[in-house]
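Quick one, T. Sequence first:
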Amino acid sequence: MLIEILAAAGDAPANQFGFMEAMEQGGPVAWSILAVLVIQSVGSFYILFTKIFEQNKVMKEYRSNRAAFWRAGSMKEGATKFDKDSAWRQLVDDGIRAGDESSKMSDSLESHDWLHGTLSRSESAIMAKLNGGLPFLATVGATAPFVGLLGTVIGIYRALINIGLEGSASIDKVAGPVGEALIMTAIGLLVAVPAVFAYNYLMSRNRKISAMLSGFSTDLQANITSNGAVKPAMAPAKSTATTAPTAKPATTKAGATTTSTSPNAPRK
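Structure tokens:
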């Protein structure tokens, strides 16, 4: 666009230079490389937004329903406080099932290991789902610059071929291939940089969720092995009842405080 504006200010050359012109000169190879980069970019942003929505849902449900879960009379009753298909409901259901199975074991150490292993496997399954798609972001961040570099190499190679055929490096023969090469380099970087930022951002949030899952799993295990005696400390629920205002002693007009006397009180 900038090249076209500058060219319009003076005498327009016979050959127009721009993005579309450079891509058309590049042929099917240039369009194929551009299509790969576009697919990588669209896939990266799709994974970014869907994972942010999924992570927000997990963290919001934990903050909203954690206190209600631990205030419930039993763990089965508390499980209903979470959504049926949520990560926290899955962890609670797996813990309840493992607690019932571990109670049938005669060895207390084996029972503890079974419960701990079941909760760990449940955590791993949840985190595997949350980490889904992140390898694609890492792949895009690592390969997109090289995909763009491939277009750059092909564009420069075509420019050298044109120079060899013409016998001179005239700007009208070289500008198209070189412009295509620079465009591919820029597009590759524009695809890779957001993918790297998205990967690091989502991974940091997943580490936070993993810590929340680990703490909740530890509390579940302590509660199950103690038959409900051990629970994390929860802040008391806010009471909506208002206290009646304290009655002030009545005063006379002179400002003296009057006190009621019993009819049976002795008089001086």
